[in-house]
Amino acid sequence: MSRSWLSGFKAYGEKRVVMVLLLGFSSGLPLLLTFSTLSAWLKGEGISRTAIGIFALVGTPYALKFLWSPLIDRLPLPVLTNWLGRRRSWGLVIQALLIIFILALGSTDPVKEIWLTASFAVIVAFLSASQDIVIDAYRVEILSDEQQGPGAGAVQAGYRLAMLAAGAGALLVASQWGWFAAYATMAALLGVGMLVFLFGHEPEIKVSAATAERERRAAEYLEARPHLKGGPAKVAAWLYGAVVCPFADFMARPAWWAVLLFVIGYKMGEAMAGAMANTLYIEMGFALDEIAWVSKIFGFGATVAGTVIGGALVARLGIMRALLIFGVAQSLGNLFYVVQALAGHNIWALAVCVAAENLTAGMAGSALVAYISGLCNQAYTATQYALLSSLTAVGRTLFASASGKLADMFGWVDFFLMTTVVTLPALLILPWLMKQQGRVASKPG
């Protein structure tokens, strides 16, 4: 491999990219504590499957985080913002609250106080989604344009490592010392992110002249309204700058609607196939322990490798070319499900299928994160990133929900062939976006 290609991988040793890796770890820790790890705890306590299923609603804040992201984007915190800066002060406060409520969640008794367990789980999910808002904004703002690709790979690698810790790690701790010890261990690990915010630097926010002028004119217009004189005008102007301007700024870009369609559709096929993967494996006759071990060994390793390789190659290929190449590879990766459906109960076919799908999905995921990062105006990073990342989550959830029905209609082979081509419209938008917008991922000036 030539030196120019290796340069993308060397970026993972740079201080700011390492910081992003650690923040990705903090970002991924709370997710499973309100999802599969919590479900395992509830099942072990004898809670009904119906009640456990309802707990899935705890994850709703992750899809709605764009609603309160303007507050985190623009609202200063008393004393702390002057001392640490806006991003780091919000990050430390949210992480401190997360530690408190993760400990509170772990101290509950689901059998005797199920509603208290549910309430703390919702609070943890809300704080976790809020932490994601801060971390995503901080990552975009501290990294240079050349570091965005490796940064995307680093944050996803950290996230996956945290999910392993909060999943298998928490279960191992719980099996030896109980559930409070498991949740307390995860709360302690959040200290990694706190150290980054404590000893890191506050990013310098560069506001373009056009952005500043738009907000100045809005403030003057509102101040001139007779019924909004004084305090109300200032509040209205602040809300306009925090809530309206981020969306108005995005919609002022060429072909913004095509960008949204692309973001929603890029991982549609991967999401649809992934939703049915375990069902396919079980119907092929694989035991749960076989699926678990292959997923842990090949799946986890391939996902982390994919995110790291993808992030490094984004820096070499450029974001748009990487999106296209990795998007095609991601779609072709779904063909291994077809191979699995034809092979039946074959453990080697399962290993290859899991490795290929996770590797290509990880590469495409890094490219998509880098692309979304590049779309954000630094004046509104948290709000715009939260909106776009929420759209990817909503898109995946919406289309994946129809996967079971489509698999019943078409059968496994035809269903997975369909997931291979369903992302084609999004991939066809890419060359058009490049022609219309030039380098769409560049930050607006």
Short descriptors:
445 residues, mainly alpha, disordered C terminus
Number of discrete helical segments? 24
Order of helices and strands: HHHHHHHHHHHHHHHHHHHHHHHH
How much is the radius of gyration in Å? 22 Å
Low-confidence stretches: 439-445
Silhouette = globular
Structural class: mainly alpha
Number of strands: 0
Distance between the termini: 35 Å
Short recap of the structure:
The chain has 445 residues and is mainly α.
Walk me through the structure:
- By secondary structure, the chain is mostly helical.
- The chain is built from 24 helices and no strands.
- It has helices at 3-10, 15-33, 36-44, 49-54, 60-64, 69-74, 80-84, 86-106, 114-142, 148-177, 179-189, 191-199, 209-223, 231-251, 256-265, 268-283, 288-317, 319-333, 335-343, 347-375, 381-400, 403-410, 412-421, 424-437.
- α2 packs across α10 (148-177).
- The longest helix is centred in the middle third of the chain and has 30 residues, at 148-177.
- The protein is globular, with a radius of gyration of 22 Å.
- It starts with a helix and ends in an 8-residue tail after the last helix.
List the helices and strands and how they pair.
Layout: H1 3-10, H2 15-33, H3 36-44, H4 49-54, H5 60-64, H6 69-74, H7 80-84, H8 86-106, H9 114-142, H10 148-177, H11 179-189, H12 191-199, H13 209-223, H14 231-251, H15 256-265, H16 268-283, H17 288-317, H18 319-333, H19 335-343, H20 347-375, H21 381-400, H22 403-410, H23 412-421, H24 424-437
Helix pairs in contact: 1-17, 2-9, 2-10, 2-12, 8-9, 8-11, 8-12, 9-21, 10-11, 10-17, 10-20, 13-14, 15-21, 15-24, 16-21, 16-23, 17-18, 17-20, 18-20, 18-24, 19-20, 19-23, 20-21, 22-23
